[in-house]
């Protein structure tokens, strides 16, 4: 068995961090950013996004509109929207600086390719190539982050163009149970290392559980050969995912 020490400072890192009106982003200087064609994203997120577009053969019909943003870029976008669109529109569609998922490098806005793409609200309908993307995105770890019936929890209007990488199997479970990230983060708190959430996908058994951080550190013990991933939730603890592969 091996003991893993979880540090409180790391609750702000990982693919499951919750960034919203209530929980701000904490800058991560070690974030691996990949930039191609004027779009930047967290490296793994970008590579998986390209895999989806290649798999549906739509690398030209779907445009990558906006990915990673610095705090300064988000501030400029917010101020420009206030000036051009007013406070009501801006509060519905543009997050405050440090409260935008785009600063994590895990979020991408997509648009149907055209000569004129709206930067704030790009067209990404529920038909055709856009729906083809949406139909398989969750199999690669992506979710449509802001949906109409979740606005009371996300405090962001319906955004069919905005996708967030959370990873597998979390995207699968959220899609099946129709949970937004706020709901999923709370739901996982019901599962512990002794009674995890078990989920089967592609010959793998995933065990997911929550570890609260009550002091500066917390510890968990896993098997020596355990394959696992740990993400902070950006609030009060960690989500641990352990998996085994079956032939």
Automatic annotation (TrEMBL):
Residues 39-167 form the D-alanyl-D-alanine carboxypeptidase-like core domain. Coiled coil: none annotated. It holds the Pfam family VanY. GO terms for biological process: proteolysis. InterPro entries: DD-CPase-like, VanY-like_core_dom, Zn_M74/Hedgehog-like. One of its GO terms (molecular function) is peptidase activity. It comes from the Bacteria. CDD domains: DD-dipeptidase_VanXYc. This is VanXYG2. It comes from Coprobacillus cateniformis.
């Amino acid at each position: 068995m091996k003991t893993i020490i979880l540090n409180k400072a790391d609750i702000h890192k990982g693919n499951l961090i919750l960034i919203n009106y209530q929980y701000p982003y904490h800058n991560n200087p070690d974030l691996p950013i990949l930039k191609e064609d004027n779009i930047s994203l967290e490296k793994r997120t970008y590579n998986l996004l390209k895999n989806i577009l290649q798999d549906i053969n739509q690398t030209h019909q779907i445009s990558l509109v906006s990915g990673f943003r610095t705090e300064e870029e988000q501030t400029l976008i917010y101020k420009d929207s206030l000036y051009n669109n007013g406070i009501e529109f801006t509060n519905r569609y543009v997050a405050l600086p440090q409260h935008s998922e785009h600063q994590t490098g895990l979020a991408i806005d997509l648009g149907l390719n055209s000569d004129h793409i709206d930067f704030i609200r790009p067209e990404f309908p529920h038909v055709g190539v856009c729906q083809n993307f949406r139909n398989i995105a969750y199999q690669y770890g992506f979710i449509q982050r802001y949906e109409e019936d979740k606005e009371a929890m996300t405090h962001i209007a319906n955004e069919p163009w905005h996708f967030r990488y959370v990873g597998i199997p979390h995207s699968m479970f959220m899609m099946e149970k129709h949970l937004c990230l706020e709901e999923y983060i709370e739901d996982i708190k019901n599962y512990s290392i002794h009674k995890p959430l078990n989920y089967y996908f592609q010959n793998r058994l995933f065990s997911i559980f929550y570890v609260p951080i009550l002091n500066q550190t917390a510890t968990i013990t896993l098997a020596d050969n355990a394959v696992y991933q740990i993400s902070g939730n950006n609030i009060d603890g960690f989500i641990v995912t352990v998996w085994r592969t079956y032939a």
